[in-house]
Amino acid sequence: LCFAGDARVRGQTGVLSERRGSYPFIDFRLLNNTTLSGEIGTKKKVKRLLSFQRYFHASRLLRGIVPQASLYLLDEDYLGQARHMLSKVGMWDFDIFLFDRLTNGNSLVTLLCHLFNVHGLIHHFQLDMVTLHRFLVMVQEDYHSQNPYHNAVHAADVTQAMHCYLREPKLANFLTPSDIMLGLLAAAAHDVDHPGVNQPFLIKTKHHLASLYQNVSVLENHHWRSTIGMLRESRLLAHLPKEVTQDIEQQLGSLILATDINRQNEFLIRLKSHLDNQDLRLEDAQDRHFMLQIALKCADICNPCRLWDLSKQWSERVCEEFYRQGDLEQKFELEISPLCNQQKDTIPSIQIGFMTYIVEPLFERWAQFTGNTPLSENMLNHLRRNKAKWRSLLHKQHSSSRSNDHSGQVTGSQEQTLNKEETP
C-alpha cells in the first residue's frame, strides 16, 4: 500500500498547496472557523479522553447493565432511549439524527460497538473491546463535523443501512463473519476525512491528493488509505496472521473504491448482466464480495429511500455542502461546479435528477437481486413518494418564478429537469 507520508495525513485534506498551482492558499479548517493547530491538538486530546470515558458507559449499556451512579456524560433518560433505539437498529425507519443526539454525538462509535457485538464479531475475531473502541473513536474523529453532509452521522447512517442489507435473506444465508466485518467497517469508514468538496474541485485546484492518486478515485483512495492507517495505528487486527490482515486491507479498499460515483455505470452494467444471466454464485467469495460492493453503494446513496422527513434533511444537507463549494469557487474565481450554484441549482431539481439517473436504476436492480423483499419494496415506495414530493415542490417553484417574472422564464437547471421529467 502507498501512504501519503507512510501514514494517514489526518485532517490535511483541507489544505491546498500554493506550490502546486496559481490558486491562493486555501485551508478549509480555517474557512470553517477552526482554531490554530496547537489548540486543535489540545481539543482533540480532551475529546478523545472524554470519548474513552464514554467507553465505560457504553460498554455497560451494550451489556444491558444500568449504571448505578450518575458519573457519566449522558443521563439515564438519554441512555434508556438510546438503548431502546439500538434494539430496533434493523428497522428501516431508524432515525440516525435522533440517535446521534441521544449518544451525545457518538452515534458512529456506539452503533459499531453494538453491531460488532450483535453479529458476534468481537468473539469470532477475538477483538479487544478497548482497542475496538479506540479505533472507532479515531474513525469518528477523522470525519469533519463542519461538513453538513459528509460527516460521522452520514457514516453512521450508511452503517445502519448496511446492517439492514446484510440481513437480507438472499445475502445473509451466505455471508461469513469476515464478510460482515468488512461490510460494516467499509460503511463506517467509507468517507473518512472527507474535505467537503468533490474530486473535480481537488483536481482543478491541483490538490496534493489529486496528484498522489493521479486524478483517479482521489477521495475514495484517501478514505481507504486513511482507514488502513487507523487500523494499523490502533493495532485492532495485530493479533491476526499477516496474510489475513493484508487480505482485509485489500478488500476494504475494493469496497470503499466501489463508492466512487464515477464508476456507477460500471457496477450497474455488471450487476444487470449477472441478474439477467442468473449466474451469481454467492457460495463463491468473489461473487459475495461483488454483492457487498453493491450493498455498500446502495447504503451510501439510500437517503432518497428513507422516510420523507429523514430524506429531506439529508437532501438539504448535501445541497448545502454543494453550495458551500460553489461559494468557495466563486470566492477564488474558479468555474462553479455543476450542482454547486445556489442561484441556478435548486434542491428539488438536484434531487429529482439524482433519483432518476443514479438511485432508481441501482435500487431497482437491488430489489431484483433480493427477490423484492419487504425492505426492498419499502425503499422503492419511499423513493417514488419522495420523488413525487420533490417534483411538486419544483413545480411550485416554477409557478412562483413565472408569477414573479412576466417573461415566464425559469432557470436553466429547472427547465432541463422539467423537460426530462415531462417527456414520455
Q: What's the SSE blueprint?
A:
Elements: E1 15-16, E2 26-27, H1 28-31, H2 37-62, H3 76-86, H4 96-102, H5 107-118, H6 121-124, H7 129-141, H8 152-166, H9 169-172, H10 177-189, H11 199-204, H12 208-212, H13 218-234, H14 242-257, H15 264-277, H16 285-300, H17 308-331, H18 347-370, H19 374-404, H20 412-422
Antiparallel strand pairs: 1-2
Helix pairs in contact: 2-7, 5-7, 5-8, 5-10, 7-13, 8-10, 8-16, 10-14, 10-16, 13-14, 14-16, 15-18, 18-19, 18-20
Describe this entry's structure for a reader:
The chain is built from 20 helices and two strands. The radius of gyration is 22 Å and the shape is globular. Mean pLDDT is 85; it is low at 1-40, 46-73 and 408-424. Helix 10 (177-189) crosses helix 14 (242-257) and helix 18 (347-370) packs parallel to helix 20. The longest helix is centred in the C-terminal third of the chain and has 31 residues, at 374-404. Strands 1-2 form a two-stranded antiparallel ribbon. The protein is mainly alpha-helical. It has a single domain (77-399), classed as Catalytic domain of cyclic nucleotide phosphodiesterase 4b2b (Orthogonal Bundle), CATH 1.10.1300.10. Helices cover 64% and strands 1% of the residues. The active site is at 150 (proton donor). Belongs to the cyclic nucleotide phosphodiesterase family. PDE7 subfamily.
